[in-house]
Amino acid sequence: MELSQMTALELSRNIRERKISVSDGVESVFAQIRKKEKKIHAYLDLFEEDAYKRAEQVQKGIAQGIYTGPLAGVPIAVKDNICIKGKKTTCASRILENFIPTYQAEVIDRLEQAGMILIGKTNMDEFAMGSTTETSAFGVTTNPWNTAHVPGGSSGGSCAAVAAGEAYMALGSDTGGSIRQPSAFCGVTGIKPTYGTVSRYGLVAYASSLDQIGPVGKNTEDCAALLQVIAGHDQKDSTSLRRELPKFGLTSGEDLKGMKFGVPEEYMAEGMEEGVRNTFLASLKLLEELGADVEFFSMKTTEYVIPAYYIIASAEASSNLERFDGVKYGFRAAEYKGLYDMYRKTRTQGFGKEVKRRIMLGSFVLSSGYYDAYYLKALKAKAIIKKEFDQAFEKYDVILAPVAPHTAPKLGESLKDPLAMYLGDIYTVAVNLCALPAISLPGGLDGRGLPVGFQMIGPCFGENTLIRAASAFENARGTFPSAEKGGIKI
Amino acid sequence: MKQYETVIGLEVHIELATKTKIFCGCSTEFGGEPNTHTCPVCAGMPGALPVLNRQVVEFALKAGIAANCQINQLCRFDRKNYFYPDNPQNYQISQLYLPVCHDGWIEIETSTGKKKIRIHEMHMEEDAGKLIHDEWEDCSLVDYNRSGVPLIEIVSEPDMRSAEEVISYLDKLRCMMQYLGVSDCKLQEGSMRADVNLSVCEAGSGVWGTRTEMKNLNSFKAITRAIEAERERQIELLEMGKPVIQETRRWDDNKESSRAMRSKEDARDYRYFPDPDLPPVHISDEWIQRIRNTQPELREEKQQRYQDELGLSDYDARVLTESAHLAALFEKTAELSQNPKKTAAWFMGEVLRLIKEYGTEPEKVCFSPKHLARLICMVEEKKVSPANAKKVFEHIFDEDTDPEAFVREHGLGIVQDADLLQRVLQKVLAENPGPLSELLGGKEKVFGFFVGQMMRELKGTASPEAVREALMEEIKKNRR
Amino acid sequence: MAKIIDDETMENVCLLAKLSLEGEEREAARAEMQKMLTYVEKLDQLDTEGTEPLSHIFGSENVFREDEIVNGNQKDAMLFHAPRTKDGQYHVPKTIG
Question: For residue A433, which of A360, A384, A489 has the smallest C-alpha distance?
């Protein structure tokens, strides 16, 4: 089998069985990058020289029995809002254009301990604010399925890289759907873990109470393996939880007899593209054929999730982004008169439109006289939304949903109407608000040949249930074509 | 002439004496080279996250309990958002909605008697960095060593009515915090900072005036001057029919005046919201009880105990308990010497004298209690004369010398050697034949002369009593 | 009825966020914020009477660190990033007060 067709776990197994070398894997990735990257532009920075050096080191380490894990030797791409020591971390923003951290994220330490190879930093929406990767200050990323379309966002670069064979796996971050939606648009698999499962230390914060780093890969098993590598308590992150870690290896293709799946009726409302609707309903049927109980139920809080999300996320973002002021690091305006002018010019020139928009909205909803009506109100709505999900999970093991009401839009379409773009987050944001885990995996293709994603949402700490259900679904669904049309074996 | 009442409330910031900062493991040590006690957390780097220092909560609880406050058993941190270079994240992590303590009181005593000053609330927060204004280049320089140092802010109700009451309150707070070991509370070093909120109103009107806030008050004298000046300034405005504007004013002690710290860009809308990076803090009943049980004796109790149990005077007890450190030193010494009254005399006398002479502070005094205790016993045992003991003590104070060894090495002990006494006596008598006959003739003045001569020969190592006795014996002998 | 985002509000928000928007950009931002705020007013329809605001979903246990010095001198690493330094400190335009 061709290297590029292997899953990450297969690659690592072949490496550890001495059938191929670590460098072979790295070479296959860079070969693909040479072929595709000009068109795709998934990466903002590539570490070719370092990657080969590291490959040698990992090769030795495997021989010496240092790296024995299931992902040893696997090349991985990292979203550019996750700090890697000594490498530029820009968050796709001009304000961090040349920022090189002298410290790194906890998750990067864990990737290194697992013997993985860092390939480069991937493109994203600026500061993770966006749904198409078009708000990046350094150019757009295109969808490997059809380069006239967006890959989704904000982890568009990570998902496009995996879909195009430019990486075996990637790390993304998800605040309102930023792993799940681009995974769906790019026909790959992505997991947003329960809040607190993966350390946020070294992840440049967007909305602190909603952000989580998560895996992107070719299938559920790969993602589950990567999740196990990066998950776990970190004392540098006060919101990091001590909990039982998600397992992989649950992919026994077992049936789903006795499992109860719920689908919120409100998710089936108008506005869903036909291709998405058909794929979704077909996916439900598939689950039923596996013995699952699938049922529709009402989630009355559905219409409130987007307003609550945007108020909370913008508010936290407006505060988290205050540190970018030209004093300690990053961009500083070339000309200014006095301190406050320096602040204003630096931030106005350094931040893009979408980021400025959200900072202003966030500042407003926290401001004197409006805090109660907006921010506090949103926190109360969050409590009610969470309660409804908790009640749903008393009845259902998993909640099912589409990932987005449509497949990948064409480049240049979405930014014209920001509000419309926000409304596309209807199926993803509640998961972040309620700290729940969720997985997005390929369901089918629409009439234009673009991937349609299928989302499974679990109760807090329910990753194992999700992994099991997703695996079973994958097995039943069968081989999903890759953007290369070579077919991804599952 | 209208009578005006001054209404004053204080916001006092106290730097806690923890080893590390509130949210990271950097040292809080004062005086390091700029930016040598920093890390991604306290320097506001992207991706850095705060983790709360348990000791900060412990100290805040000790302070709150000592000040008779109610404890919020669920308290939280909030972000206070404002842009300034000494604030690396451009938000300060503080507590607004659920501070650790609230509704307490402290009793003060002034010339008009005792009074309770109520405490509105007490909360934990992080300090900002230091800004220096570079005179040469018309710019400012920022040092983040102090950024993240833990503070508690104590907000009083506007219960004070005079500068005297304010000073008494601050002094009481300072003493309390020192006794608790929670802070060294030095206004001049910035480990205690006071902002004064002041308004005036017509006496008896019941209508409170607009208040102003004053900052940059670095000594008790400055505070007194600032209060008096601001009162005058506000009264003058009101007398002229002008309004007092609510604003923050910066006191300049050199000019003895204040000016408004107004800035167009200074929004003063802090947009407080709960910090999502820090989970709430749960303070259990057990924790509170443990603190109550292990709370050290505070000044008032100690003062009383010194009078009741150790028999010290009111005055001595007050002076000795002014500094927690000195009181501890005194107690240990008294315990070892088993003679509290004598020990008190030494402290009130020599210790305080040397502190003044050396220009040092009670907190910096560091001789070993066992050394002074031994010295006191040696005087009681007549092993050294009081005069020599004072000399020895100077060495104890300065270098913590062992008194036994020192006395031995320098021959300062009182000699019990009768032979030596006789030899010296005879020597002195032989050297002074003239006065000798006058002595035998009964002249008292000459007696003193001979005592002096002998003491000089003996280098003060004999007790005056022994010398007198020997001389008396000699006179008796010769008279016969 | 949604809050009307007028010039004064924009001015204030820009002051708080330390941004300077001019002309067309400012007008576009104002219009978008207005649209967004009108949309989020939807939340008013949700009855939140008697509901406590939920700020932290987890957080039922204390998370502390011990008072031990673990960080050494990281001055070079921290100042490495600074746009402008002088005498081992961050150099900024003169501050008032």
Answer: A384
Which of B83, B139, B282 to probe the A interface (max A CBs under 10 A)?
Answer: B83
Q: Residue B398: which residues within 8 A CB-CB, separation 6 or more?
A: none
Q: Which pLDDT does position B329 carry in this prediction?
A: 94
| Ranges under pLDDT 70 in chain B | 1, 262, 264, 267, 415-416, 418, 442, 460, 479-480
Any CB–CB contact under 8 A between A348 and chain B?
A: no
| Amino acid C21: pLDDT | 92
A292, pLDDT greater than 80: yes
Is the CB of residue C33 less than 8 Å from the CB of residue A364? yes
Residue A234: both structure tokens together: 């970190």
Catalytic residues of A: 79, 154, 178
**Domains held by chain A: number:** 1
From chain A, the residues in CB contact with B140 under 8 A are 339
Tokens of B184: 């060294």
A-to-B residue pairs, Cβ atoms closer than 8 angstroms: 96
Strand order in the sheet with B273-274: B91-94, B78-81, B273-274
Task: Give the architecture (CATH level 2) of B418-479.
Answer: Orthogonal Bundle (1.10)
Interface of A with C in 340-359 (CB under 8 A): 340-345, 347-348, 351, 353, 356-357, 359
Has residue A394 been placed in a domain?
Answer: no
- Between the alpha carbon of residue A100 and those of residues A85, A125, C49, the distances in Å are 7, 19, 48
**A225 contacts A67 by C-beta, under 8 angstroms:** no
Token pair of B290 as six digits: 């443990």
CA dist C45 and C41 (Å) reads: 8
What is the arithmetic mean of pLDDT over A67-88?
A: 97
Summarised one tens digit per residue, pLDDT across range A182-224 is 999 999 999 999 999 999 999 999 999 999 999 999 999 999 9
| Chain C touched by A233 (CB under 8 Å) | no
pTM of the model: 0.91
Q: Is residue A73 part of a domain?
A: yes
Pairwise CB contact (< 8 Å): A366 & B273:
yes
Strands A212-217 and B4-15: unpaired
Is A239 an interface residue toward B (CB < 8 Å)? yes
Q: What pLDDT, in 10s, does the model give residues A251-282?
A: 555 678 889 999 999 999 878 999 999 999 99
Chain C residue with minimum CA distance to A334 = C83
Please report all neighbours of A, defined by 3+ CB atom pairs within 8 A. Answer: B, C
CATH at residue A183: 3.90.1300.10
Cα–Cα distance list, A424 to A163, A402, A421, A442 (Å): 22, 11, 5, 18
Distance spanning both ends of chain A, measured CA to CA: 13
Of how many residues is chain A composed? 490
Å from C43 to nearest chain A CA?
6
Q: Domain residues of chain B, as ranges?
A: 4-287, 297-382, 418-479
Give the max Cα distance, chain A. Answer: 70
B residues 233-272 closer than 8 Å to C (CB): 250, 261, 263, 265, 267, 269, 271
Rounded distance between C-alpha atoms, residue C46 and residue A301, angstroms: 8
- CB of A381 less than 8 A from some CB of C: yes
* Domain of residue A126, residue span: 3-258+464-477
- To the nearest whole angstrom, how far is the Cα of A320 from the nearest Cα of chain B? 8
Query: Where are the domains positioned within chain C?
Result: 7-45
Q: What are phi and psi of B364, to 5 degrees?
A: -90, -5
Residue A139 domain-assigned (yes or no): yes
**CA-based nearest residue in chain A for residue C51:** A380
